[in-house]
Amino acid sequence: MVTKMTVKNQITIPKRILEAVGLANLKKDEMYFDIEAKNHGIFLKPMTVTVEERIPQEQWQKFETRAAKIDKGDEVFDSPEKAAEFLKKRVKK
After folding, report:
1. Is residue 15 within 8 Å of residue 24, measured between CB atoms?
2. Which of 24, 32, 49, 67, CA to CA, is 20 to 30 A from 14?
């Protein structure tokens, strides 16, 4: 089976190959692979990556620090349900 690599190093994996390894019907926007050069070939291994692993540690810490601060004008809720209700109303505007 032949596939091409674009000038941006992108390769389309044929559906038949994905079906053979059980990856054809995934309902994800993106998938991550561990990639390795071995025996004159390229090997891809599907993997799960958390948000924390994709964001550099320093940026993640800044985000957590900022998210924990309450600034003037911020909305504060005493339950997840009230926060969800507020966001639903806000989206409808």
Report:
1. yes
2. 49
